[in-house]
Amino acid sequence: MNILVMGVDAPSELGIKGPLAIRMIRIDFSRKTAGVFAFPRDLWLPIAGLESYGITQARLGESYLIARSNAGMSTAAATNLVAQNLYKNFGVLSDHYITGKLTSLAAMIDSVGGILVNIPVAYDGTPWHGHYFPAGPYSMTGTLALEYSMSRSVPGQWTAMDRQSQVLLALFQKIFSPETLTKIPSLIPQFLQAMTTDLTLQQASDLICIFQEIPKEKITISGVGPNDVTYGASGVLYPNFDVIRAKIQQFLNPA
Fold first, then answer.
1. What is the pLDDT of residue 13?
2. CB–CB of 229/43 below 8 Å?
3. Which alpha helices (DSSP H) does the chain contain, by range?
4. Is 5 in contact with 97 (CB distance < 8 Å)?
5. Do the Cβ atoms of 61 and 38 come closer than 8 Å?
6. How far apart are CA 167 and CA 155, in angstroms?
7. pTM (2 d.p.)
8. What gap in Å lies between CA 125 and CA 201, rounded to an integer?
9. How far is the C-alpha of 34 from the C-alpha of 27, rounded, in Å?
10. Are strands 2-8 and 96-101 parallel, antiparallel or unpaired?
11. Digit-coded pLDDT (tens) for 26-50
């Protein structure tokens, strides 16, 4: 099962248009493995579905924004447009989608009692009046998780993409953990307010069951990297399609 997950409504001070985070989640029920693949929002791609608005190419993230604002599409329809263009350009099919408001992320994390993020490399946010996050397991409140995942970074968006994936994985693991299961019924209204999804209750239940059984070492994080693109003006990233498609196939069919 592949689930397209997008975090939208980035804080205005970041100057970002469209989704801040675009991820494909792969869950293999039979092998009990999972993975997260990150797509940069600034990937410049051929875009289908917006031709009547004069758009045939755009940044991946901005295609969602254009679909919502110019075309007047619903959140679900705009998310599906992104999913269709990921399939058209890279051959990765989305079985389901989850689109959530990043501004609600902190409250969601607090509602499950915080998350434990395994930080691979220390991150210093103090130059931007933030916190220092040492390497290793780190307990985070919603506010800290939002800062860690959305803070400015050097060198650019690549390390931020990694941090976002780490927070997403930690949140998924906490939601689907045994100690949180009893709280799920009371949390559903808050989660529904913060996200749009086509997952049914049965499918969500299946996900909860499988996530409980997946060892942490069987969860991988990968994605488009700095060597997979050519840099253009205004931060545009021109993809090396062959390289990225090969990485996606490896992500979908791990050894």
1. 46
2. yes
3. 60-69, 75-90, 105-111, 142-150, 157-175, 178-181, 184-194, 201-213, 241-252
4. yes
5. no
6. 19
7. 0.86
8. 39
9. 4
10. parallel
11. 999 888 899 999 999 999 999 999 9
Three-state secondary-structure class, residue 104: helix
Q: Is 49 left (phi over 0), alpha (psi -120 to 50) or beta?
A: left
pLDDT at 14 over 50: no
What pLDDT was estimated at residue 196? 87
Q: Please give the average per-residue pLDDT across 196-218, as a whole number.
A: 81
Judge contact between 38 and 23, C-beta under 8 A: yes
pLDDT at res. 233: 93
Domains delineated in the chain: 2-252 (3.40.630.190)
Asked whether the CA dihedral 88, 94, 96, 98 is positive or negative, the reply is: negative
Measured distance CA(147)–CA(164) in Å, rounded:
10
Is residue 237 a contact partner of residue 43, using CB atoms and an 8 Å limit? yes
Residue 139's H or E segment, with its range, is strand 136-140
The pLDDT tens digits for 91-123 are 999 999 999 877 778 888 999 999 999 999 999
- Find all residues with CB under 8 Å of 95, minimum gap 6, and list them: 1, 2, 3
